[in-house]
């Protein structure tokens, strides 16, 4: 007597669908598919981390345009960023793989151009991600430097200012801890991701309320929404030019949401939940980020003093805002230092999520043979974690911070490089979608319908615009100490990618390859 097999549960049916869809795209399931839509969203939301981006580049926003640029420019950037995110979400729904952007470029550019499209997109994406992790973790090291300074008396009270070598050591320890955490199973990473998202959300609400409430002097609404700061040490006097440079804070913050795409091979119902993760991470970040900017800016009174290297925080504007708010009311800045630790922990989680994302990108890119020693980097251990890719990402991010020991100005371009390179990688598959595949593209469950091409062109044109704008000089006269290194670095990356293709890769790299076997 034969027994009938019980019908599959909803979870088993979904897993079978995910595995089958991945096989259709040419890959077998190697990573553990454990992430829910909440977990997928949490990773992107944590990588975007408004506490990280706004805090790190608040000085830039304050110097170039000030309150008006930050509060109103946030939504200008946000609207165009949403166009990019919607276009990416649509493509993610059709091709839910860890390779994300470079795989999309290969599938959308046609057989003739697929290998080159995948090559250039993949390298811009992975280098931009490594630069992003380096930038995030180094910004945390710099914030710890300021916290230690304020905790030991401040810049004007004999406080301890860590040397550039100590800051680099902080950076190394942070990266080491992130690599250890990312060596854990996806179950743990899912837990950390959700906790990090909650920390970011609650942290924003605590700070946006606490800082202006505690401050004894507050700015007016007119100042916060309309004051346009043209007083900068960069000798730039054009209002439009100043406004554009001030947008970097917003655009640097609103990036990293491709993490949802890179986690799709570990996400249930990936063709739906991956796109939801991308869009919801952008949308919620827009809302809570604006609240954070408002809360901090209402406590701003004297912009030149906040930017002065002679203040207690050594010119770190947000740290000085927090410190002064509590010192003015309670006679000491301990509460402000505690608030800075709230931000520091958020930045720590942001770096953790960034490494999770770029290790999956490294895994996928090496799985398709695009990297030197590819067979090593796509190894998956017994926990179903791409362990070698994790440690490679940590090592490269460590090396990328070495320029800080020679020139902090050169390293500060890392934020621009991370933003520009990643956004170029975002735009390339969208460009191929609207130019080469507008008739052949078969959308997944999430699609933009008749607005797909229009939104796609808006996204591409925005990326082209910011690529030019963020390559402009940020100070005059231009010297080796004031040079904007972004076009140098991005141009160097493009030259490397192009030459490596012409000299070598065109002979052996065929784009995404199946790992299904015979």
UniProtKB/TrEMBL annotation:
GO terms for molecular function: gamma-aminobutyric acid transmembrane transporter activity; L-alanine transmembrane transporter activity; L-glutamate transmembrane transporter activity; L-lysine transmembrane transporter activity. InterPro entries: AA/rel_permease1. Keywords: Amino-acid transport, Membrane, Transmembrane, Transmembrane helix, Transport. The chain crosses the membrane at residues 37-60, 72-92, 113-131, 165-189, 196-216, 236-255, 276-300, 330-351, 389-411, 417-436, 448-472, 484-503. It is found in: Membrane. Belongs to the amino acid-polyamine-organocation (APC) superfamily. Amino acid/choline transporter (ACT) (TC 2.A.3.4) family. This is Amino acid permease/ SLC12A domain-containing protein. The lineage of its organism: Eukaryota, Viridiplantae, Streptophyta, Embryophyta, Tracheophyta.
């Amino acid at each position: 007597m034969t027994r009938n097999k019980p019908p599959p549960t909803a979870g088993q049916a979904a897993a079978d669908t995910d595995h089958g869809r991945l096989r259709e795209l040419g890959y077998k399931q190697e990573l553990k598919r454990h992430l829910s839509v909440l977990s997928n969203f949490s990773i992107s939301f944590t990588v975007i981390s408004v506490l990280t981006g706004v805090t790190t580049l608040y000085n830039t926003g304050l110097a170039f345009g000030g309150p008006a640029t930050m509060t109103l420019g946030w939504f200008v950037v946000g609207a165009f960023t949403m166009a990019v995110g919607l276009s990416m979400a649509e493509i993610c729904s059709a091709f839910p793989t860890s390779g994300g952007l470079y795989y999309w470029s290969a599938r959308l550019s046609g057989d003739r151009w697929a290998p080159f499209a995948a090559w250039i997109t993949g390298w811009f994406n992975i280098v931009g991600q490594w630069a992003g992790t380096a930038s995030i973790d180094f910004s945390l090291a710099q914030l710890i430097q300021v916290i230690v300074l304020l905790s030991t008396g401040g810049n004007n009270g004999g406080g301890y200012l860590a040397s550039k070598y100590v800051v680099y050591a902080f950076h190394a320890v942070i990266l080491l801890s992130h690599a250890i955490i990312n060596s854990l199973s996806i179950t743990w990473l899912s837990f950390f991701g959700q906790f990090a998202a909650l920390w970011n959300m609650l942290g924003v609400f605590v700070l946006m309320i606490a800082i202006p409430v505690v401050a004894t002097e507050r700015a007016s609404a007119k100042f916060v929404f309309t004051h346009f700061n043209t007083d900068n040490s960069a000798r730039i006097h054009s209002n439009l030019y100043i406004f554009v440079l001030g947008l970097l804070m917003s655009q640097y913050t609103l990036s990293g949401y491709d993490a949802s795409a890179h986690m799709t091979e570990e996400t249930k119902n990936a063709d739906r939940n991956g796109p939801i993760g991308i869009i919801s991470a952008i949308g919620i970040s827009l809302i809570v980020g604006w609240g954070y900017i408002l809360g901090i800016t209402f406590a701003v009174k004297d912009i030149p003093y906040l930017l002065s290297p002679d203040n207690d925080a050594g010119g770190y504007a947000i740290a000085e805002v927090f410190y002064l708010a509590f010192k003015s009311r309670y006679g000491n800045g301990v509460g402000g230092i505690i608030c800075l630790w709230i931000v520091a922990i958020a930045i720590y989680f942001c770096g953790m999520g960034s490494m999770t994302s770029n290790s999956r990108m490294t895994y996928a890119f090496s799985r398709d043979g695009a990297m030197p020693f590819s067979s090593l980097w796509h190894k998956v251990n017994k926990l179903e974690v791409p362990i070698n890719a994790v440690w490679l990402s940590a090592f490269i991010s460590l090396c990328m911070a070495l320029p800080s020991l020679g020139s902090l100005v050169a390293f500060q371009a890392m934020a621009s490089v991370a933003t520009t390179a990643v956004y170029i990688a975002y735009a390339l598959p969208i460009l191929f979608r609207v130019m080469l595949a507008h008739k052949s593209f078969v959308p997944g469950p999430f699609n933009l319908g008749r607005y797909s091409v229009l939104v796609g062109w808006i996204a591409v044109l925005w990326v082209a615009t910011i690529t030019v704008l963020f390559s402009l000089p940020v100070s005059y006269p231009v010297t080796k100490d004031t040079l904007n290194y972004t076009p140098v670095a991005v141009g160097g990356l493009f030259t490397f990618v192009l030459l490596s293709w012409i000299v070598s890769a065109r002979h052996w790299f065929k784009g995404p390859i199946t790992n299904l076997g015979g």
